[in-house]
Amino acid sequence: MSVLCYFYAQRGASLTRIPSWLMQHLVLCAFVMAVARGQVRYSIPEEMTKGSLVGNIVQDLGLDVKRLKSGRARIFTEDSREYIGLNVDKGTLVVKERIDREELCAQVSPCSLHFQIILENPMELHRIDVEILDINDNAPVFTRREIQFQISESATPGAKFSLDNAHDSDVGFNTLQKYTLYPPDHFSLKEQMGNDGLKYVEMVLQKTLDRENQEEHKLILTAFDGGSPQKSGTIKISVLVIDANDNAPVFSLPVYRVSLLENSPKGTGVVSVTATDKDKGTNAELRYSFSQTSGKALDLFNIDSESGDITVNGDLDFERTKHFQLHVEATDKGGLTDSSKVIIELIDVNDNAPIISLISFSNPIPEDAAPETVIAMLNVKDMDSGRNGQVKCSIAPNLPFKIQSSALNFYSVTTDQLLDREKMSEYNITITAIDEGSPSFSTNKTLTLKISDVNDNAPMFQRQSYTAYVMENNLPGVSVLSVTAHDKDAGNNARISYFLEDILVNGVSASTFISVNAESGEILAVRSFDYEQTKEFNIRVKAQDGGNPPLSSNVSVKITIQDQNDNAPQVLYPVQSGASVVAEIVPRSADVGYLVTKVVAVDVDSGQNAWLSYKLQKATDRALFEVGLQNGEIRTVRQVTDKDAVKQRLTVVVEDNGKPSQFRFSLSCLSSPYCQSNATDGDASGCFTNLERIFQLFRIIRLFTQT
Ligand SMILES: *[C@@H]1O[C@H](CO)[C@@H](O)[C@H](O)[C@H]1NC(C)=O
Q1: Which ligand 1 atom sits nearest the alpha carbon of residue 428?
Q2: Residue 392 C-alpha to ligand 1 middle, in angstroms?
Q3: Closest residue by Cα to residue 298 from 327, 267, 261
Q4: Do 460-562 and 570-706 have matching folds?
Q5: Every domain of the chain and the residues it spans
Q6: pTM of the full structure
Q7: Which of 100, 102, 163, 377 could share a disulfide with 359, CB 3.0–4.6 Å?
Q8: Domain 460-562 is of which CATH architecture?
Q9: What is the rounded CA–CA span in Å between residue 581 and residue 109?
Q10: CA-to-CA distance for 245 and 331, rounded, in angstroms?
Q11: Does residue 450 line the site of ligand 1, with CB under 6 A?
């Protein structure tokens, strides 16, 4: 009994750590010592070598060794297997077969072998209990080498994942005591006692997983028993983090700024926006779109939902909109989005020509407008901007106008010099507005400016002076001359009236001679002129225009009266008296060429009309006398003889040279009292008076013959 109790006392040295199953033994031990003889208990560790002593039953049962022999002591077990043998000679129990507690009892504890020692003569039965004590001969073992988990990164802390249990065939301290998990950064362990008394172990997520940071976690679960030395077993835990759509797409830039030429055709690439998503698979598949807040820009641009390429999809007109702001969104399949902005600055293209607007236009302007007179005000616009919208205005050269900028985009066209309607009555002023784009655009505008007349020109006669020739004996009212003046002005300013200036001619008013037709400028004779009275005179004609005030000019007109052969020569000598004819005496001794007398005649006409010639028309003896054709001298042609008649009668014709010879004059020698004559031949042969020895000259009769 002492061995038994010693054993228990040893175990009880650290009583506070004694688990409950041992306490039962202690209670049993007390019981064993209290029970009657014939029953004994032993404890031995498992796996003792064969022959090892289990206990001395002679002592413990208080038997004599001889009695063992005599009583043919032997062991009786109910099952056939005998782990313990009896040494009858020594009265001891020894290990007969290897005892594996785990094989014998598995997890049942305490594990005992029960058998009887049977003695005969007399028969005794002694019950022996041998408790097989566990030794730590098994390590905890996991059935699998590795556990694999796929855990979403969206799993929240506190999520539990059950792990494999380890198994340790030992019992008590020697069996599984605890687990550890390493590394401890994301998971912790939780052990739980199941209803079956087994420990279950779980892995609890402590800290969210981030696939994007670490996609796989490798842990080691270690199971420890409580034996000494301690044994352990491990299992690998692999945690594959499954992507959750925990990352929104992120655009590469918060704002994309691009410049784009206006009028870029449809399809022109603008910019490519890109976003990235740290997630995986569909969670990282992005679609690009415009957000509705982009407004009207939505119609003008297109975005490829796959590539993020933004292209032109409408007409971009810098003049309407200079920049656009597009809001783009990138959305992953999980619905997470990011947004960014695309700011598109349009670049102006010179696609607009300048526009010239006429604000005011003074048309016509009078020709006397002073230089710098404003004719027109213009506004010039160009819808483009920058150099493309900077406009210069000019006027076609060689025009008396200039263009000046009066204010930004405002121009005035003014006269640059004096104008003269009479030189140029209309101008086409072409104004050119050209912008500074490259290539540039230009616009022309033509103003047709009329110059209105001012009465700045006096009428001008065609000649500086006029001479009119008028035949004397004219009929009153006959037209003498037409004067014409011109006036460079227009309209009333050029409407000319003609007037006779009231000056004195030969002491009387000019109007008694001449009148002027106010409209036609025709000069008329008021009376019949007599050359022999007035050979010429001057008048002044005024031409006056209809301007207000009127302008006028004068011209002098010399009226020259032309002689007509309206006077017959007049014979001054010999004096013609009605009664007698002067007789000339010619001495008988007169030589040839003797100047008998000279017929002297005058003609009040002039020129040819007064150029007289003398001819002998009739003579008593034509051979005796001759008359000087030009001088009218009557001379003898031959010696006078006694045979010649005493009286010689001569008729001399004095004739002027008027042409046509409208007049002819005869000179006749008449006898008293009267000498007839006729118009045609001037035959006055019956009219001679008696002459004594001398010639008589005869009265000149003027004969008028109208041819
Ligand atoms: C002005 O232009 C018009 C129309 O082309 C033309 O008929 C006219 O003769 C021009 N005038 C001048 C003064 O050039």
Answers
A1: 1
A2: 25
A3: 327
A4: yes
A5: 2-133, 137-244, 245-349, 355-447, 460-562, 570-706
A6: 0.53
A7: 377
A8: Sandwich (2.60)
A9: 223
A10: 11
A11: no
